[in-house]
């Protein structure tokens, strides 16, 4: 694989760290700024709001710019947002800085995925996307725990300044490793990018992302009380167990990339089915410490098997102008984060057991599987029939390559 993918992974590592580290820093931030924990929780929402707004907006306004330049500019904005977070004089300044930090998140992954697929042969495109996402999953294993530990001992401001340094390293890597001619500006410009959003298959792919990852976050948002109240773990053990989720996510991400290069649709449907099965088994697996640890690992694996296929599916359905649609998929991911957590919370608020958010997630996974099935049916109805044998697309079509339905 080309070294340029390492530059994308470094950027993804920094973004993944700053996205998830706030959960571990909330008590320290709340104490230092003299606010309540629920009020400090708005800092998480501010970042997610920045992602949802910034992903399609920045992808649209930079549609005519070379993608290499776009990626570097997005990381500059990322560094600025995290530096301002570390230097924020008070709560409202930190709230604004977190929103700013979230703006480049979705567009970086969206444009980065397009660039990644231009760096490799057609049969390795899903794998290239998974290697970029590797930075995000490794952030959950190493970046978030180390950044949380640094924030707890040196202060939360040091954490954000440290993440800014990771962003600077990403800028240097992007400048040195991304070839200029491998990331050209799209020919269609903004009009071509917006045209991609008129496609029903694109919206079905985005709907699959919302439902599928909503299933993940319905359970994952409440995994700590499951581990302590149901499985009997001490609070001090939760950080290590969440690292197991990152290990599972890394395994699933790499496996999903390899499998999707063989069968994009099969990997997506298989991953969604596996996620639904794991979530259905969650109440049983949370009955003992060893099986609870296994459940957390399997949750990460099953969920992230679908990450690369979903990203590539959106890009395939908007192959003429993929940047905006690809970035919109990241916005859909963050909508899934918020929506899944809300649905899981409804199950708890209704008085069901502490593991009930997992069953709510299983229902969302079933919905995602249904949407993915509908997308497959639409493809079969609208795609041309080349002959007695129907070929299945396994990567984004190239202009010189026949599109395999």
Automatic annotation (TrEMBL):
<feature type="transmembrane region" description="Helical">
    <location>
        <begin position="268"/>
        <end position="286"/>
    </location>
</feature>
<feature type="transmembrane region" description="Helical">
    <location>
        <begin position="200"/>
        <end position="223"/>
    </location>
</feature>
<keyword id="KW-0812">Transmembrane</keyword>
<dbReference type="InterPro" id="IPR020846">
    <property type="entry name" value="MFS_dom"/>
</dbReference>
<feature type="transmembrane region" description="Helical">
    <location>
        <begin position="103"/>
        <end position="121"/>
    </location>
</feature>
<feature type="transmembrane region" description="Helical">
    <location>
        <begin position="41"/>
        <end position="63"/>
    </location>
</feature>
<feature type="transmembrane region" description="Helical">
    <location>
        <begin position="292"/>
        <end position="310"/>
    </location>
</feature>
<dbReference type="Pfam" id="PF07690">
    <property type="entry name" value="MFS_1"/>
</dbReference>
<dbReference type="InterPro" id="IPR036259">
    <property type="entry name" value="MFS_trans_sf"/>
</dbReference>
<feature type="transmembrane region" description="Helical">
    <location>
        <begin position="70"/>
        <end position="91"/>
    </location>
</feature>
<keyword id="KW-1133">Transmembrane helix</keyword>
<protein>
    <submittedName>
        <fullName>MFS transporter</fullName>
    </submittedName>
</protein>
<keyword id="KW-1003">Cell membrane</keyword>
<feature type="transmembrane region" description="Helical">
    <location>
        <begin position="238"/>
        <end position="256"/>
    </location>
</feature>
<feature type="transmembrane region" description="Helical">
    <location>
        <begin position="133"/>
        <end position="152"/>
    </location>
</feature>
<feature type="domain" description="Major facilitator superfamily (MFS) profile">
    <location>
        <begin position="4"/>
        <end position="380"/>
    </location>
</feature>
<feature type="transmembrane region" description="Helical">
    <location>
        <begin position="358"/>
        <end position="378"/>
    </location>
</feature>
<feature type="transmembrane region" description="Helical">
    <location>
        <begin position="331"/>
        <end position="352"/>
    </location>
</feature>
<dbReference type="InterPro" id="IPR050189">
    <property type="entry name" value="MFS_Efflux_Transporters"/>
</dbReference>
<feature type="transmembrane region" description="Helical">
    <location>
        <begin position="158"/>
        <end position="179"/>
    </location>
</feature>
<dbReference type="InterPro" id="IPR011701">
    <property type="entry name" value="MFS"/>
</dbReference>
<keyword id="KW-0472">Membrane</keyword>
<feature type="region of interest" description="Disordered">
    <location>
        <begin position="384"/>
        <end position="405"/>
    </location>
</feature>
